[in-house]
Design brief:
Blueprint: H1 14-24, E1 31-32, E2 44-45, E3 47-50, H2 54-57, H3 61-84, E4 97-100, E5 106-107, E6 138-140, E7 155-157, H4 160-171, H5 174-191, H6 194-206
Parallel strand pairs: 6-7
Antiparallel strand pairs: 1-3, 2-5, 3-4
Helix pairs in contact: 1-3
């Protein structure tokens, strides 16, 4: 599915990024993000504001202007996407959610299209890059992920002391940390991406003939 991902740099002007953050960063309107209408911290752990919702905009001129400008930015992105992928006839914009990830926040691999809100394309704007982390995790050996990943693809720990030592070690070595994170991420998306997992579920459910999947070795 990588061939359908388009990266557009500077899609949102820096000035607009700053305006969005200034408007919403310290508001009390942040809420725990939902998954299929429910809060599930094991799947999605972040905060959100539906900044296109009338109740959030509340007729404030500054928020109306932000929504309009983001609409224009998204429109230009979709126009580029439609030109490259002729079959992707995107015509409707469902509005924007502003997400906030605190330390330890995450969103497990997922799809943005579901029965109540079918979507053809998801458009994500990264409003800031003044942070560290977001690409690296430590795994307890009890998870048995070492059956699928090597020590140079993800980091395992055996107890709390081992974890503490490795956090200190890797927090001081950006290059090594990023290299391991990239290898682990690449392998994960090669063998465990949502398309492969869905294929496994379908074939397993209906008893179709199939070759062994990576995790069945």
């Amino acid at each position: 599915m990588k061939e359908y991902i388009m990266l557009l740099k500077n899609a949102v002007p820096t000035e607009l990024c700053d305006i969005v953050l200034e408007e919403y960063e310290n508001t009390e309107e942040w809420q725990a993000a939902l998954t299929s209408g429910y809060t599930n911290k094991k799947t999605r752990n972040c905060d959100t504001i539906g900044i296109s919702q009338p109740s959030v905009i509340n007729n404030k001129s500054s928020r109306i202007e932000i929504d309009n400008k983001l609409f224009n930015c998204a429109g230009k992105c979709i126009e580029n996407y439609n030109k490259k992928f002729k079959h992707a006839d995107v015509q409707e914009d469902t509005g924007y959610e502003l997400l906030r990830y605190k330390t330890g926040g995450f969103y497990s691999e997922h799809t943005d299209s579901f029965l109540q809100a079918p979507r053809l394309v998801s458009c994500s704007f990264a409003l800031n890059d003044n942070y560290k982390g977001g690409e690296f995790a430590f795994f307890d050996k009890e998870t048995k992920y070492m059956d699928f990943f090597s020590d140079d693809e993800i980091i395992f720990y055996k107890n709390i002391n081992d974890l503490s030592e490795k956090i200190i070690k890797f927090s001081n070595d950006d290059k090594l940390r990023s290299r391991i994170a990239k290898k682990g991420r690449d392998k994960y998306f090669k063998y465990f991406n949502s398309t492969i997992v869905a294929d496994f579920i379908i074939k397993k459910t209906y008893g179709f003939n199939r070759k062994k999947f990576f995790w069945e070795k």
